[in-house]
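Re-run with default settings, no changes from the original entry. Doing this only to confirm the output is reproducible before filing.
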Amino acid sequence: MNFDEVYEAYFKDVYFYTKSLVVDNHVAKEITQETFFKALKSFHQFDGTKDIRAWLFTIAKHTYFTQYKKQQREISQKEIVVQNDIQLVEYLIDEERALEIHRFLHTMDEPYKEVFSLRIFGELSFDTIGHIFGRSSGWARVTYYRAKKKIMAYLEMGEK
């Protein structure tokens, strides 16, 4: 049996299996597609001693777990970002502190000053900021966090 035949014969079975793991049809399709991609890459290693459907289900299960873990990491990172942003917004609410932040912001080097301003005052996404600078969203995210770290360090020095 070649891989095209396996795909035709077992796609629905794998899809319904992944659908039992996740509620979202789109996510189930993504996991199914990733499962068959992984199966294609290692199809030459399949010796036929096991049921091919069970082999595909195992790949699908591992793919689901990998995606689930990744999603959990992203959620926890977003929670940390939200907490840090809330703390920074609290600083900005106090007018005196806001003025202090603005003064310090003007002394910062580019692109930190611009990225921070676009994110906080312009409320732009990291994707948009990255696009403005002709860089990736990851670059924008890192630059923003470095700027924020500098501002927080400056504010903490002022409190001492």
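Residues 52-93 form the longest helix (42 residues). The CA atoms of residues 15 and 29 lie 7 Å apart.
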